[in-house]
Amino acid sequence: MTRLQATPAPPREAAQAAEEAPGRVTLEAPGEHDDRPDAPARTPELGRMLAWLRGQAVTPSGDVLSWVNPAHPGYPYPEAAGLLLTLLAEVDDGPCPLRDTIAARLERGLSPAGGVGRDGLDYAFDSAMALHGLLAHARASGAPRAGAVDRLYDFVADCIERRAAVGRGAAPALRWSTSWGCHQLKLTHALHAHGGAGRRPLAPLVDALLETLTPLGPDGRFVIYAGDARSYVHATCYALEGLLLLQRVAPPPRRDELAALLRAGARWLADVQRPDGALHAWHNGQVGWGPAPADIVAQSVRLWAALDREAFAAPIARGLTRLAALQAPEGGLRYLPGSSDINTWCTIFAAQAVLWSRPDARRGPLA
Q1: N or C: which end of the chain has fewer CB within 10 A?
Q2: Based on the structure, what is the number of domains in the chain?
Q3: φ and ψ at 123, to 5 degrees?
Q4: Contact by Cβ (8 Å): 303, 241
Q5: Contact 215/161 with Cβ under 8 angstroms?
Q6: What is the pTM of this model?
Q7: What integer is the mean pLDDT of 324-341?
Q8: Are strands 288-289 and 282-283 parallel, antiparallel or unpaired?
């Protein structure tokens, strides 16, 4: 199958890609990545990733940092806290003092509206990841949690009903993360885990997500939001992660339709993967451009492994090799080659990618 070749980004798109990337990101120089199709396969070391996540990524008070770099400190990131709770509930089943500390800090950090975010802005997406993590922790601990999870659910439900990515009264600049865009499909994992409550039952919320967001990816490549033909591949992966659940729980024939859409998206990711295992951050259906970060590689590997490890064996191997090259001596993953920021969510995704790619994998909830 012919691979789509990347070209330099137009200045506006390049600037937006850099703006959206965490930390101080620079584009990879020509020749910086290994394009040899026969490069030896490698896998990042799971134990070192988990040790870094349990240690350096979490502060004594339970905050989970966006990244770790003494020269460029990360910030407390509630979304990453939710993702880490979900991962740790998979690998550390049963009571866990570290999860208790993270969960308690996450609950204390809820805004008066019941959401979480950063810089004074509550996000539906971040809140859903926090909700999912708290529920995963509660199931693993055998101790149901009330109060915070219901407040988070109500906040996310209110955003869905308003078709809004952020809390009431906020009017941030339009970016992929502040748009009612394809990435919101991943909210279904948190909604389904919660099960619905009170005046906001589950089914209408899921229907609203499907009706407004699946049209953004008719062929599996999801555009950022309505009216923009570009794909931010990180957001496309989030959309496909939502479909990973929906194609299992939706009633037929919708189930078959969503399964076909998910498989088409997974094939598209494999088609645009570079020979070195990386994927460009941006794509317009013809060419890709911008940085090639670790998160979308790990997300793609998880999707391929969940769908068909044998059919996607080659892109999985390339992806794991790319992730191994980005593993820092500390154990966590760099967002990009040469970055000094050891990134938390990239490491979480990569750890789960390694777990799910194993032949004997028993997949837990998606982080």
Answers
A1: N
A2: 1
A3: -110, 140
A4: yes
A5: no
A6: 0.90
A7: 97
A8: antiparallel
